Amino acid sequence: MIGVRRYFIHADLDAFYASVEQLDHPEYQGKPVIVGGLPGDLRSVVSTASYEARRYGVHSAMPIVQAAKLCPGGIFLRGNMERYRAKSAEVMAVCAVFSPMVQQLSVDEAFLDITGTEKLFGPPEKLARKLKKTVLETTGLTVSAGLASNKYVAKIASGMSKPDGLFAVAPGEEERFMLSLPVGRIWGAGEKTQELFARRGFKSCADLHRLSPAILASVFGKSFGTFLYRAVRGEAAETFETERGSRSMSAERTFPQDLYDEFEMETQLFSIVSEVFFRLLQTEYQSRTVFVKIRYGEDFSTEGGRETFQDPVSTLNDLYEKTLGVFHKKYRPGHGVRLLGAGLALEAKNPARQGDLFNETEAREERLEKSILEINNRFPGAPLKRGRLIGR
């Protein structure tokens, strides 16, 4: 790949949950839609707010009670995750037409590595516009796209012209692009970090750019200081758990507040691996390699772990147990977790599976899970899913 110019698209569905609701309910079009709970749900938070609701100051992770005060005339919904996953699958199928390497980060965003696709689809910006057009025509949803030479800059670029936007950062312009931004645009710098920026008088990426790695480390800690040093220079500041030339699939969740309870972490991991596993069932691949990603809230440090097993993942519970094993080898007890991710390295499926390695219990579980997948594909609103095992 020496001498080959790299290109990545970050595709980000606009106000995804709310947009699906507006698509399914035309009477909601043009109105403030708030997904996450009803006004009386005291402990619920906003998952997604339509752009109409955002004009009232409503945003993700805000308590529903507060959102109801800001937008009393809003349409409040608890949401339908099965429907959102079905629409997400439609979008990812479109993405796969444009690139053999699609990395889905969550139900509403993905990276496309479009390096070397010019002969098929033309220049990268033309491809990005065609991708947006095809998603809209196929699914009825709009997607904002960022185009750049690395994933981190592409992710920030996708948020520059929302909704339904396209923002391209030309090769060689990554640092200039980042230096033009306020610190609020630094992806990965959360609320507490923004407060620290304000206390220290850092308003722009250029302010941070002037600091040496040693000073950044003294102020923000070594891990986050190194991250900031790379980020404001337009470098690949974030690792997104994939490598050129390899196939993988993954999902991750960023939490509004750090998680400290290990049972809650395990529950979140089950949700994450469920999403990954049912995507795996729709491919012609298998996996013997499981990986996890853990980001701690207090210092932004990120740990990853992976393990390759003798036999391929066979069932959801098999994947969950393997993932938990990797997680508990890496997790530092007592530390708050801001982000969890999990995924699989993919390999060609081996049709010859030895009977003594694949027992009847696993076979029954596999048949059940394939049936769930078939029913949910035929009836997107079907509320069928597996539950996590309790009592590890």
What does this structure look like?
The chain is an alpha+beta fold. Among the domains are: 16-81, MutS, DNA mismatch repair protein, domain I; 175-231, Orthogonal Bundle (DNA polymerase, domain 1); 248-378, 2-Layer Sandwich (Dna Ligase, domain 1), CATH 3.30.1490.100. It is built from 15 helices and 12 strands. The protein has helices at 16-24, 51-54, 64-70, 81-98, 118-121, 124-139, 151-157, 174-179, 191-200, 205-209, 213-220, 222-231, 262-280, 316-330, 360-378; strands at residues 8-13, 33-35, 48-49, 75-77, 102-106, 109-113, 143-148, 166-168, 248-259, 285-296, 302-308, 337-348. The strands form 3 sheets. Strands 5-6-1-7-8 form a 5-stranded mixed beta sheet. The chain has a 4-stranded antiparallel beta sheet with strand order 9-12-10-11, covered by helices on one side. A hairpin with a 2-residue loop joins β5 and β6 (109-113). α11 packs across α12 (222-231) and α13 packs across α14. The longest helix has 19 residues, at 262-280. The radius of gyration is 21 Å and the shape is globular. The N and C termini lie far apart (45 Å).
